[in-house]
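Format notes (please read before filing issues)

Several people have asked whether sequences and structure tokens are stored in separate files. They are not. Every record keeps both together, in the order shown below: the sequence lines, then the token lines. Line labels are part of the format and must not be stripped during preprocessing.
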Amino acid sequence: MNYDIIIIGAGISGASLAYKASKYAKTLLIESQDYDREIPVRTNIFADHNKPFIDDAFWNDDLIFPRHFLQLNYKSDKYDGFLNSKEFGAPLGKISHTEVFIKKLIDKFKDQGGTTHFNEKVAKVVKHSDYVEVINNKGESYSSKLLILATGSRGFDLQKSLGFEVPDSFMGIYTNTYADESLLDENFNFQYMFHLNPNISPNGPFFFNVGKGRVSTGYLGNKESPDQLKEKLVRILRNYKKIQPFMNGLKWDGNFITGGISKHPISAMTKDRVIVLGEAAGVVTAFFYEGLLGGLASADIATKLIKPLLENDSNFSRPELITYDQEIARILLNGYFRNGAACELLFYSKDSSAKTLWTTYTNLLNTNKTVRKYVYEAHTIQDLWNYDTDRDRYVGERLFGALPGLQKLTLWPKFLKAMSK
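Then the structure lines:
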């Protein structure tokens, strides 16, 4: 079977591109998981800065986004660093029941004539001069003018076989539970908690994402095995004193989801007839592990590039596709993502300075309205390509100024390096 576009991977980036591209191209979407049976439950924070990359029909769908994102808690051992959006007049965004979003994207894709192959694994890709051949694990083959890799952290062998780099990959774990809204409102006065403790993970947060009638929790950034991740999360949920006030009446069903999460963008995201999207390309914020933004933005950028190339019977050569790399850099990497790179350097480490920095930052969020305003605007900005990194510099300078004198001396080189990100 011949297609204009074959997309491998039906996470948020692959499903989004499939929905948009099928309006003008014959498209095949391949997913190794059995989505006909179940799309894994995912409760995510959906900051307002994601809005430009989705259609209004989805944004206004209460099944996808059942509640507003009103308050966050950047939690340290000593402080709850709250940001309440009421202070600035509008929500930070919405809470996403992401499996519903993905299903509706795929349903629209099929309505537009798109083809899905679920529970199917790709064994091999062969690039020919005028098409790409995709061969599945049953030996069946399909051809297309353009191949899209949207495989997240699950397709690195395939990615490397096509000559691409792969981003740095870490492990993460999460679980969900369902509860009455009244209990969730009683336990959680926020929709998102981001907590750093290097004993949990030296390179990622412990989190709560509070949806409608359900809550997700877990941690990211480790190199542990799936069994080690599960054992640790069970201990945390049962015994970690910092989170016990949120646990009253909640019963976790023991359905733990483990997997890779990747960050640090690869240097080249396109080759002849191939584009790499989202997490597979490392387009994930280095500090917050914000994958929805990178996935949706990269799909939107690719959609706008591909349409005129198809209309002009393009060969989809690297020189024609490199605009995708350039737009990823312009819209994301050269501005907003620099904040994540600087925060990663400052806050992720096993030494005691990381704890001091995070404690100081969470207190700064409580005491400095301008800091709160800039964090709020980072969530709600609608034109990320105009993101003002001077605001990040302001927050960094205030953070440095709030440190004890001895810490200033020892951490000055780290701050200089972070400011240069």
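For reference, the curators noted about this record: The longest strand covers residues 168-178. Residues 291-311 form the longest helix (21 residues).
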